[in-house]
């Protein structure tokens, strides 16, 4: 696999307070990487730097070999936030379509993209529903479809499942893995949940705070599906908890 994202000695401060210090990391195409660690480790800041929402103070960020600030972010990098951020005055279909409003696609191409994204997340029958008619899990699926509709090469996810109940979270974990297997997206997911990191990731990167720096990296070769009660999975969760 080739590198989708490369960071070299990336640092970021706010009001002269260091938040990230000399982060160097290479993420391969099609890899799922979990950023794990306590609050203050700079996990979300790192996502914002990769997405282009923030500029690094020092260091280099390359996306598919191109400097992040010159990369065509809108069409190849999608960002899924902790909140679903659905527009209440738009239907499910219209919320997903919002992800394409700045694209040069034709009207029919946009409609097909929206239809395909809703099918992918299992919401084809809910296209005309309103956000207030949906459960929390369904709203998260709509937000995921809105990110998928641009057919991104890279998906950045900032604790997107943290507000869901355990059963719904588990269901969406499985859905995400199924979609990633179909699309071969590169995924970076920020989480505080060690179990979530082990269930989803090919590699777990632990950040330590004040300032944020890479403490450890763990490659996971456990077969999927990874169920926390299985001995090998449970042992990996135990070992990673010692790192956080």
UniProtKB/TrEMBL annotation:
<dbReference type="GO" id="GO:0005524">
    <property type="term" value="F:ATP binding"/>
</dbReference>
<keyword id="KW-0813">Transport</keyword>
<dbReference type="InterPro" id="IPR003593">
    <property type="entry name" value="AAA+_ATPase"/>
</dbReference>
<dbReference type="InterPro" id="IPR027417">
    <property type="entry name" value="P-loop_NTPase"/>
</dbReference>
<dbReference type="GO" id="GO:0015697">
    <property type="term" value="P:quaternary ammonium group transport"/>
</dbReference>
<keyword id="KW-0547">Nucleotide-binding</keyword>
<dbReference type="InterPro" id="IPR050093">
    <property type="entry name" value="ABC_SmlMolc_Importer"/>
</dbReference>
<comment type="similarity">
    <text>Belongs to the ABC transporter superfamily. Drug exporter-2 (TC 3.A.1.117) family.</text>
</comment>
<feature type="domain" description="ABC transporter">
    <location>
        <begin position="5"/>
        <end position="234"/>
    </location>
</feature>
<dbReference type="InterPro" id="IPR003439">
    <property type="entry name" value="ABC_transporter-like_ATP-bd"/>
</dbReference>
<dbReference type="InterPro" id="IPR017871">
    <property type="entry name" value="ABC_transporter-like_CS"/>
</dbReference>
<protein>
    <submittedName>
        <fullName>NitT/TauT family transport system ATP-binding protein</fullName>
    </submittedName>
</protein>
<keyword id="KW-0067">ATP-binding</keyword>
<dbReference type="Pfam" id="PF00005">
    <property type="entry name" value="ABC_tran"/>
</dbReference>
<dbReference type="GO" id="GO:0016887">
    <property type="term" value="F:ATP hydrolysis activity"/>
</dbReference>
